[in-house]
């Protein structure tokens, strides 16, 4: 068994801003969006759409809460709606807005069968309504999924119960859409007429909830109702667009990877400075020590393994997961500690928080990510074995599909590269959003695992066009973009062939 290393080929992020200097860019961008919002409400600008685009981990929900508060302070705004595709996006926002504005003013409009899913911390800070008539007359913010707010005749029920808002025609003055690039156009059209002005906030690299391979509207090949709705309006004269130029989630060492995904932005900075995030490891030897030492630096690490038995399929690979399990064992047996620098609302550094794997708190510590359900079933079996063997508490080790984990955050990601074992790039394994979500969940360390041969696959793949920086959805990355992303990783090669000698 031999193990070799190579450093990342991509340029470093020595020019990056950190702490308050980085966060200031987001504050200023959000202020430009607020200024446009105020101008639209005052009829001083002809905007009907405002789009605040963000990279993963940019603090977009914080910006949305700020914009809701500013809108309600405007004389021409008395009531707003907040929507998203899924309840898991709506619930946290409801809690944050309830804490900011008070329960009498914030109403979570939720289906009765979903009430048991609402966290207690949200219930404590909002009003709850399962039918329109339950919405209190003190309500200034109504939150619900696009399916709930966009139900048939729901606009009329809002008008009948609440009356028109300040605009005198529609039930709300502003419609805010969280994770806007995850909401397909056909869902947005069901809620668009609730307010004269829509504000979309979201990560342009997310996977949309519906991702068909073909345009279902055959009569008009230029129109696809399943695409992310902001892409239909970004170039319109009545749309104001601004980017959040800083991310709060990654380590400083991960910033070149983030920049590889958002390469068309003017700049992208990182609130976390070098040294703000640490992983303290137990004593280990052999390949596990080498691999985890690399991950603990904060640099994205790609582990390529040679000499494995053949997989069942490219995306069903028990031998590969067996190596991952072997690497996790000494880490979990010895225990590890995650250290995180906290920041105030403007990015100024505060104290450090230490979380030990013996008593985890907050976001999960390690998450195993794979693309296909069968692969995640195998990863779940790994999690169950290791959890039982080392009596791990909840929150130390989880497994998930990439699609299910979008919008979530964890300390260390261990992911199977979507191209591992593939013989060609196809629409699924080279999807932009799927790879972006895989690479941007971690706050402390990213370990990408693959069978050897990624460089050969990308070198031999036929050149073809792609839209890596256009709309998320039914599109795939060209090989050149994959190569640019891989260039930001530290590379570790593990050759198991010597075990067979």
What does it look like?
The chain folds into two domains: 2-14 and 273-500, Rossmann fold; 48-242, Rossmann fold. Helices cover 30% and strands 21% of the residues. It has helices spanning 19-41, 60-72, 87-101, 120-123, 146-149, 154-162, 185-188, 255-261, 286-296, 318-334, 373-390, 402-405, 432-439, 454-460, 479-486; strands at residues 2-6, 49-54, 80-84, 106-109, 127-129, 141-145, 174-178, 198-203, 239-243, 246-247, 269-270, 277-280, 301-306, 337-343, 349-356, 366-370, 397-401, 410-416, 442-451, 490-495. It starts with a strand and ends in a 6-residue tail after the last strand. With 501 residues, it is α/β, with parallel strands linked by helices. The radius of gyration is 23 Å and the shape is globular. InterPro entries: P-loop_NTPase. It comes from Pseudonocardia bannensis. Residues 460-481 are annotated as: Disordered. This is AAA domain-containing protein.
Set down the secondary structure blueprint.
Layout: E1 2-6, H1 19-41, E2 49-54, H2 60-72, E3 80-84, H3 87-101, E4 106-109, H4 120-123, E5 127-129, E6 141-145, H5 146-149, H6 154-162, E7 174-178, H7 185-188, E8 198-203, E9 239-243, E10 246-247, H8 255-261, E11 269-270, E12 277-280, H9 286-296, E13 301-306, H10 318-334, E14 337-343, E15 349-356, E16 366-370, H11 373-390, E17 397-401, H12 402-405, E18 410-416, H13 432-439, E19 442-451, H14 454-460, H15 479-486, E20 490-495
Parallel strand pairs: 2-8, 2-9, 3-6, 3-7, 4-5, 4-6, 7-8, 10-11, 13-19, 13-20, 16-17, 16-18, 18-19
Antiparallel strand pairs: 1-20, 12-14, 14-15
Helix pairs in contact: 1-2, 2-3, 9-10, 10-11
